[in-house]
Amino acid sequence: MPKETDEPKQQPGAGCPIRGVLDRIGDQWSLLTLEALEGGKKRFNELMREIGDISKQMLSKTLKHLEQDGFVRRTVYPQVPPRVEYELTELGRSFLIPMKTLIGWAEQNHAAITIARQRHEDLGRSPIRPGAPCRPFEREERIAGLAGHFPRGIPPAPRSR
After folding, report:
1. Is 25 exposed, middle or buried (0-12, 13-18, 19+ CB in 10 A)?
2. How many alpha carbons lie under 13 Å from residue 124 in its C-beta half-sphere?
3. Bigger pLDDT: 142 or 123?
4. What structural domains does the chain harbor?
5. C-alpha dihedral over 137, 138, 142, 145, to 10 degrees?
6. I need a surface site. Which of 20, 21, 100, 105 has the fewest CB within 10 A?
7. Could you read off the pLDDT of 111-126 as tens digits, one per residue?
8. From CA 96, how far away is CA 34, in angstroms rounded?
9. What DSSP string describes 120-153?
């Protein structure tokens, strides 16, 4: 039993904002889940279909973590059968701006990173472990959608040629 003088256990990364954010969004599924919720409320099975190769358990875990950190709101409707919907909170919507910037950067630099990894592997420095392939991004559509998210004077990243 804890004593009154015992200090509460601090969460990992609690004193470091970037660590806390990266702990939440740095996994394989959080960004894809947030992106899938960008269009509005969705039910669990809709998210499963839109995200793709995610298991029910992993989507459930990801949604719980995003809800816990305030990115996602879960609403349960009292009906039979039960209906549950997920949507972005204001915090989650505010994260779309840097998230889209990161997605754009990843799309622009994917080829260069792949080449660098291949060179590294060719030199025998480390094996490349291919992960699940990215689902294709509708680049032009997404870039066009970014225009309204940037404050004046901050243009979207230039297109790669």
Report:
1. buried
2. 0
3. 123
4. 17-88 (1.10.10.10), 93-149 (no CATH)
5. -150
6. 105
7. 999 999 888 887 776 5
8. 8
9. HHHTTS------PPPPPP-HHHHHHHHGGGSPTT
